[in-house]
Design a protein that fits this description.
mainly alpha; two-stranded antiparallel ribbon; disordered C terminus; mRNA-binding protein
Length: 1233
């Protein structure tokens, strides 16, 4: 049995299991079916086999026997309706999973048994629906020979299909729906045949077509008097809708014969002439599904093109009134679907049809009803975007002969016609929908791209005049206007737009207005442009403005305007560098040297220029690797071979660019140069191995000189800390991934010399060499070759590790452990103590790495190997041996070591609980359990965490005998509030109750502490009741997320309520709904003061958590975080990018008027004048921290909040007594283990 059959059998068993569960159902029919199934299964129990197919046959025989009992054998009338319903329902379930060969061979017999369930007058809807399901399974299983009745049988599938089709028109909705679903399923699963068309499809379509034709003929033959009768009209319309539903079901399967599509369209078009809006809307839905099926299948291949055009033209002629909100939406959907489907088979002719669509929609764009005008605009956007294939926009040369000159001329003519239409749309006649028209124009520019010019230049100039004029009517349309101009920049290119709409920044042309507002649009919309546009049009203007800087006072507004313009010009450079079309022609040595000179001289431009240099490389690499492969126009404009040549060209310049970047990197502060490393890495990708090796050797020489110099300065007691060495090591770490294998020897020598440095920065970077090298396959091989030396170096420097370098060292150890050969397991023994201690490190990243390394070491030991310590016999590496190694930490001299070892055991027991032998688990448990009685809080806290892991993770047969001894030891800490001891103990006892039952825990609970147990039980019952109430009234809130299952086991629910007075607190919460807001001063709130009312609120004041504060800092422009995660207070500099754009305040006189209104006087109470107060924040002086300098503590960080929501010495606690503190988030990571 293959996987699919197994899955189907499992699905059947799942369905039967659900039916069995309904034995206790309150619904009589469900209960009866479940009882029948139970009785049948009890009866066939003796015949059960491992063969699933035989079991299904047993089910079928039993259910058919029951059905025979429920039907009179002579009259074929149903005598036991309830039994027949249950048997047919169960047969429907089993038939879906029966072998098709079985259903084919027994078709006549099965159909004869099912037929009375459909034809009997007593049959209820449930019985008929189940019988339809059986009939569906039977018909789906038939092959082509059975459908064609090659053996001239009396009972054929066509006979059953005819009855099913009749049910599709049944007046009962549920039966009709089930029958339609059966027809859909049959047509979607045609038997194996030479054609994809179902053998029964012509008969089904003929039935549906005849039914629809008969109803329409009957409707045409009715007299006017009859048509006025509501009863007759309702009956006829209902029959039409039923027929349309059947037609729609057939059409969605794609099985409607191509030869009958024209006839179907004629009937649907006839229905659209009805005055009944629901009929018209339903016929439009059929049209839409018809077009969908024609687009998705090959059924439209037989439809003549002129007939398709005739259908579309007929639909165009059926346009409803521009005030009919009910029909316009459906009609427009049909128009869009028809055009997009037509474009699949005849793309050029579909484009030629678009002007007619524009002419049709112009009527609806003028509609005063917003819904209609919006629908019309969306129609035109959809037609432009989907009915215009990218292939037809290519020139004959670009298409490789697929587009003829005649077709290209047709497309150009259509674009010119649309340009005239857009010019008309931008007149006064369409002012009611100007925004929608601008969106259509933007879509046209995005679609037509370079083919948009020069035809669409006129509409673009009209829109530009609106933007330049800045009149009151057009100011509301600024965002849409800029969208149009931006789309033109993206489509036609910035060079074409600048030529048509000159920027005129320096005022060289007095007849043209200045368009400085276009600079942000150039920045946001420029892609795949020409770098020459920046060099020739923008860069000279930037130089001209920069030359005027010295002629203005430092604080003048004019200077700030010029600086802003220069910054906006330079901000466009990275976008001009994104996959440029003229890289080899425009990125010359002169331009490259000019950029490099600016990197040295202008520190504010370093970020922009580095981003541009990086974009030159990354965009070309991504393009050659398949990015934008579906952009047909771009692929034709810029072939992939051209990008490969671009990369080869950049490779010739990479060495010089890298040299400049290295120099700039050494001159930039450590917390502000991450982007330079990114740029360096981009150019290392395209540099040849020979050049990389030469560059690496040069950097190594500089590093040696720097280290020698700094060693001499250290010997002369110079307090200057080494800066250049750490900087050069950053460069080397970046180069690691791109070095050839010949450089690895020198790389390991650098690691050996720098890892023992007394400087933190150097040591951190030294360890990164190993972890960075392990990311590449060649690097792993090199580490494996030098593994012995690396192990020696790591062990030799274990006592000189700086705190901040510990995470890097752990990452290096993890790499080494992962590559250890089986005979090097002694390295694990040597470093195990260090790893164990690191599990309790104050740094979260270090702790996480320590746990990862601990688990990895256990996995490597469990894989086998040998441990040779040099003294004594060689030991075999096993998981049990590793647990012995870890257990040595329990006899450590310090409490911290013992606590760390217990923490390590908790992690290991949880991770390997399924593979550990019970003897080892019991030995570890018994040993650690003794530490629950330790007087050291640190040790006891870890032991409690270990106990919690065991309670949750170990098998019940191991933990149940340990519970009697565990409970008294835990209760020893139940009265200790410090460090959440009481809450942790209470939570473990709750878990014990859940797992072993309340009675068992109570039997082993000390008498003196039964009050705590009673409190836990009361709390659990109250919480259950509360949860039930909340589920009925409120949606379930998401619980905390944890990084691993171990985290969830240890930290989940640690923040639960831990007091014994929960009832009192709950009652207090119910009694009072008012809150007192305490003053920020030192004096308590005086309730006798007249102003006290202002400090009493009916809602709880919002408390901002640290997460909210950090989010606020991230959103504040005055703050930033560097690559190391340190907080930087940014100073506001003139011309500092987009932070302050003086041009925004000088767009027009309207802004000045609005500003005057905002800040001017207003009339208050008693008609008195009041002036609005401004709040001017003071600028903060910027500063930056070096990587060595420690974080500065806030002066108010240790201040205690009077509300009791402060830190309180622990995270997530209740706070002080003054009020309930903010509930902290659930603990993440392993920081509290």
């Amino acid at each position: 049995m293959d996987a699919d059959q197994v899955a189907r059998m499992l699905e059947l068993e799942e369905k039967l299991a659900k039916i069995r569960q309904q034995v206790s159902s309150k619904l009589e029919n469900q209960k009866h079916i479940a009882l029948i199934l139970t009785a049948v299964e009890e009866n066939i129990k003796d015949h059960d086999t491992n063969d699933t197919a035989k079991n299904i046959v047993n089910y079928m025989v039993s259910f058919m026997t029951l059905l025979d009992q429920a039907v009179d054998p002579e009259t074929h009338a149903i005598k036991d309706l309830q039994l027949a319903t249950a048997a047919t329902y169960l047969m429907d379930v089993v038939f879906q999973y029966s072998a098709k060969q079985l259903l084919r061979s027994k078709f006549a017999e099965l159909l004869a048994k099912i037929a009375p369930c459909i034809t009997d007058e007593k049959a209820e809807p449930l019985l008929i629906r189940s019988a339809i399901g059986c009939l569906e399974s039977l018909l789906v299983a038939q092959d082509a020979q059975a459908w064609n009745n090659t053996h001239n049988l009396a009972i054929t599938p066509m006979r059953g299909l005819q009855g099913l089709l009749e049910l599709c028109l049944d007046p009962r909705p549920k039966i009709r729906k089930k029958a339609l679903e059966a027809i859909h399923k049959i047509l979607e699963n045609p038997p194996v045949a030479p054609t994809a068309e179902h053998v029964a499809a012509p008969a089904i379509c003929a039935f549906a077509s005849n039914q629809l034709t008969d109803v329409l003929n009957e409707l045409a033959g009715l007299s006017n008097r009859q048509l006025k009768s509501d009863t007759v009209k309702e009956d006829i319309n209902g029959r039409i809708i039923k027929s349309l539903r059947l037609v729609s079901t057939i059409v969605t399967t794609g099985q409607w014969p191509a030869a009958q599509i024209e006839q179907l369209c004629d009937m649907l078009l006839e229905i659209t002439k009805s005055s009944d809006q629901f009929l018209v809307s339903t016929s439009f839905e059929c049209f839409e599904k018809l077009f969908n099926s024609m687009a998705e299948t090959t059924a439209s291949a037989g439809l003549a093109e002129d007939k398709y055009i005739k259908v579309i033209d007929t639909i165009f002629q059926l346009k409803p009134a521009n005030t009919d909100t009910h029909l316009v939406g459906s009609w427009i959907a049909v128009v869009v679907k028809g055009m997009t489907t037509y474009a699949v088979g005849s793309p050029v002719k579909a484009v030629a049809k678009i002007p007619e669509v524009f002419e049709l929609m112009s009527t609806y764009l003028q509609s005063e009803t917003m819904e209609i005008s919006f629908s019309a605009s969306q129609c035109l956007i959809a037609v432009i975007s989907q009915a215009v294939r990218d292939e037809v926009l290519l020139t004959p040369e670009q298409s490789g002969g697929n587009i003829s000159k005649k077709d290209a001329k047709v497309v150009s003519g259509v674009i010119s016609t649309l340009a005239d239409a857009f010019s008309e749309f931008l007149t006064v006649r369409y002012t009611n929908c100007t925004k929608e028209i601008l969106n259509i124009l933007a879509a046209a520019f995005k679609k037509f791209r370079t083919r948009a010019g020069p035809a669409l230049f006129k509409p673009l100039q009209i829109v530009d005049n609106w933007r330049v004029a800045e009149q009151k009517e057009t100011m509301e349309l600024v965002s849409e206007i800029e969208l149009v101009i931006g789309s033109a920049i993206a489509g036609m290119g910035p060079d074409a737009v600048i030529e048509l709409l000159p920027l005129n920044l320096t005022g060289e042309n007095p007849d043209q207005p200045g368009r400085a507002w276009m600079l942000p649009l150039l920045r946001d919309y420029t892609r795949n442009a020409r770098i020459s546009t920046f060099i020739n049009d923008l860069l000279p203007a930037a130089k001209q403005f920069e030359s005027k800087f010295e002629s203005f006072p430092k604080e003048s507004v004019q200077l700030r305007i010029y600086q802003t313009i220069v910054d906006q010009i330079w901000s466009t450079l990275p976008h001009f560098a994104e996959l440029p079309l003229d890289l080899r022609e425009s990125f010359t040595d002169e331009f490259a040297s000019e950029l490099c000179s600016l990197l040295y001289s202008n520190t504010e431009l370093r970020t922009t220029i580095c981003h541009a240099l990086k974009m030159l490389v990354e965009s070309n690499i991504a393009y050659t690797e398949g990015a934008l492969a579906d952009d047909v126009i771009l692929q034709a404009t810029l072939p992939v071979d051209e990008c490969k040549k671009n990369l080869e060209y950049l490779t010739t310049k990479s060495v010089n660019i890298l040299a400049v970047l290295f120099n700039i990197f050494t001159q930039t502060a450590s917390n502000m140069r991450g982007y330079i490393l990114d740029t360096i890495e981009s150019y290392l990708k395209i540099t040849t191995p020979e050049d990389v090796e030469k560059t690496f050797n040069n950097v190594c020489g500089l590093l040696k000189g720097a280290m020698d110099k700094e060693s001499a300065e250290a010997a002369s007691n110079n307090n200057n800390k080494p800066q250049l060495t750490a900087t050069l090591l950053d460069i080397i770490v970046t180069m690691v991934g791109y070095l050839p294998a010949s450089c690895y020897g020198a790389l390991f020598m650098i690691f050996d010399q720098t890892v023992s440095s007394s400087d933190t920065l150097i040591q951190k970077r030294a360890y990164r060499i190993i972890s960075k090298l392990s990311e590449i396959s060649l690097g792993e091989e090199a580490i494996a070759n030098y593994l012995g030396e690396i192990e020696t170096i790591l062990l030799r420097n274990s006592n000189s590790v700086h705190t901040s370098a510990r995470s890097g060292r752990l990452a290096a150890i993890k790499t080494v452990v992962n590559l250890l050969p089986p005979d090097h397991m002694s390295f694990i023994v040597h470093v195990s103590a260090e790893i164990i201690l690191a599990t309790k490190d104050v740094n979260e990243k270090t702790r996480d790495l320590a746990f990862e390394v601990l688990i990895l070491m256990a996995q490597r030991m469990s894989n086998g190997g040998s441990i040779n310590m040099g003294e004594g016999p060689t030991q075999l590496a096993t998981l049990g041996e590793f647990f012995k190694i870890v257990s040595a930490g329990l006899i450590g001299e310090s409490q911290h070591m013992v606590s760390s070892t217990i923490t390590a055991f908790a992690c290991l027991v949880f991770e390997f609980r399924e593979s550990l032998s019970s003897d080892i688990v019991l030995e570890v448990y018994d040993t650690v359990e003794l530490y629950l009685t330790s007087n050291s809080r640190e040790i006891a806290k870890s032991a409690i965490g270990f106990a919690k892991v065991c309670v949750l993770g170990l098998p019940e047969e191991i933990m149940r005998p340990k519970v009697p001894a565990l409970i008294p030891k835990l209760l020893r800490w139940s009265h200790e509030h410090t460090g959440h001891f009481k809450a942790k103990v209470k939570h473990i006892i709750e878990r014990l109750i859940r797992r072993f039952g309340y009675e068992y825990v109570e039997a082993n609970f000390p008498q003196d502490d039964l009050k705590l147990l009673a409190n836990i039980r009361k709390t659990r019952n109250r919480n259950k009741k509360k949860d039930t109430t909340e589920e009925e009234s409120l949606p379930q809130a998401k619980g905390p997320k944890f990084m691993s299952a171990f985290d969830e086991a240890v930290y989940a629910s640690d923040g639960e309520s831990d007091g014994e007075n929960d009832d009192d607190e709950a009652q207090a919460g119910k009694r009072s709904k008012q809150y007192i807001i305490e003053k920020a001063g030192e004096n308590p709130l005086d309730l006798l003061d007249a102003d006290t009312l202002a400090h009493i609120s009916s809602t709880r004041p919002k408390k901002f958590s640290k997460k909210d504060q950090r989010k606020k800092l991230l959103q504040d422009d005055s703050f930033a975080f560097d690559d190391e995660g340190k907080l930087i207070v940014k100073g506001k500099k003139y011309g500092g990018g987009d932070e302050e754009d003086p041009l925004k305040a000088m767009t027009s006189g309207i802004n000045a008027y609005l500003e005057a209104v905002k800040t001017g006087p207003v009339r208050g109470q008693r008609n008195k004048l009041k002036f609005k107060k401004g709040h001017n924040g003071e600028d903060n002086d910027g500063f930056s921290d070096d990587e060595r300098s420690g974080p500065k503590r806030d002066a108010g960080r240790n201040r205690i909040d009077k509300r009791g929501g402060g830190r309180g010495g622990f995270r997530g606690g209740r706070g002080g007594r003054g009020g309930r503190g903010g509930r902290g988030g659930k603990f993440q990571s392993r920081r509290k283990l």
